[in-house]
Amino acid sequence: MALAVVRPCSNLEAEKVELSRDPSNMPKMGRMQKLKRRLSQSLSKFVPVPRDSCNGQAPVESPKGDYEPLETESEDTLAAEAQDRLPHRRHSEAIMPLQLTIEVTSPLPGGRNSPSYVPRRRMSVSPDSPFGKVETYQKLEMLGEGSYATVYRGVSRITNQIVALKEIRLNSEEGTPFTAIREASLLKGLRHANIVILHDIIHTRNNLTFVFEHVDTDLSRYMENHPSGIHLHTVKLFLFQLIRGLAFCHARQILHRDLKPQNLLINENGELKLADFGLARAKSVPSRTFSNEVVTLWYRPPDVLLGSTNYSTSLDMWGVGCIFAEIISGIPLFPGLKDASDQVVRIWQVLGTPNEQTWPGVERLPEFKKRKFVWYESHDLGEVVPQFRNSFGATELAQELLQLEPGNRISANDALRHEYFSDLGLEILKLPAEFSIFTLPSIKLHEGKLTLTPPLSPMQNPYINKS
Question: Which domains can be identified in the chain, with CATH numbers?
């Protein structure tokens, strides 16, 4: 039943007279207030008004019928519904504690123009949420240690899922490393079957811990366990997944900038995932402010070795070519031993020393002008890496990846459509980003599941709490 508000007619008449004298005194109304006013005026035509109501003798009766007041959800109701939805979130989506924005509109006339209008109020999720807390995960054994982070195997107490805990040590004077901030911000928006998933972030006073999906091994250790070489079909599947993950990044103007076998994770199903985005960078427009101290020496392109900072996605594609040659032969293609100058010479010995005719602009690069290089003839990659000849199109793809001039290198998107991958079929190119290539019945590993190094048993593991 609708509710009627009784106001003395004397006051109403006085307000009408005052507004007729000075229309500027009329309060401003928002769209909803204007709509309600028009509806009220339309309905008032059908409401009988008693003649003596202005004398305060009887209230105005509401019209008979099925009219009901509009129900509005209160702020508490919205908050309760948001809390109910939290437990149903996917574990992989819990990156950081969420914030729900609830807009509270002023009940006074004027809406947003009212002095007492409250624009927004933020309400954090329930403090009982398990995400973002140290006690949610049990740390097991250490998997590896770097210059600023240590990686542990762990287990989620929520799902009993094995995870990888990347623990970054924080310095009270220096704050959070910029590489960690960059990695978290980039991975938050990269959801792809060939990119490692960031599940959660735990921030304490002394550490910042990233909770990743656990992947059994990396490409470097896998090659060590197969000294006789990797099967050619497995090489093709690894390379396709590497380029597929990069194509997803490059389409979003993100450069990985640290491609090497140690940063390519592999599980027993043969799925390859890009990891370690600490040096990754979003590149929306061309820039000369990038550093040339990127990419491990063996996988760094010659233009960057010569001091160029005006690079783009071609930086990563050179690394793909180096990794392709290494996994198909078992030997690094350009194993520099000293510094950038030695690394450049290793490249010249295989691909030939460039000049202005073969690479326009090379003589203007900073490091090229500083020294005089020995002249080397170029060699066919099929002669340098004979294993390329055993796969149709492998030599041609490697040559398009390992072009000295960066502008001539093949893009990730074009590489996926190269004839080298033609026997994988066209359906593999239509897969949604979050679908593994092994969801296709036609894509199978040569040996079924991959043979990986077995993990330590609980009794052998000194990091497991046996109490």
Answer: 134-213 (3.30.200.20), 217-439 (1.10.510.10)
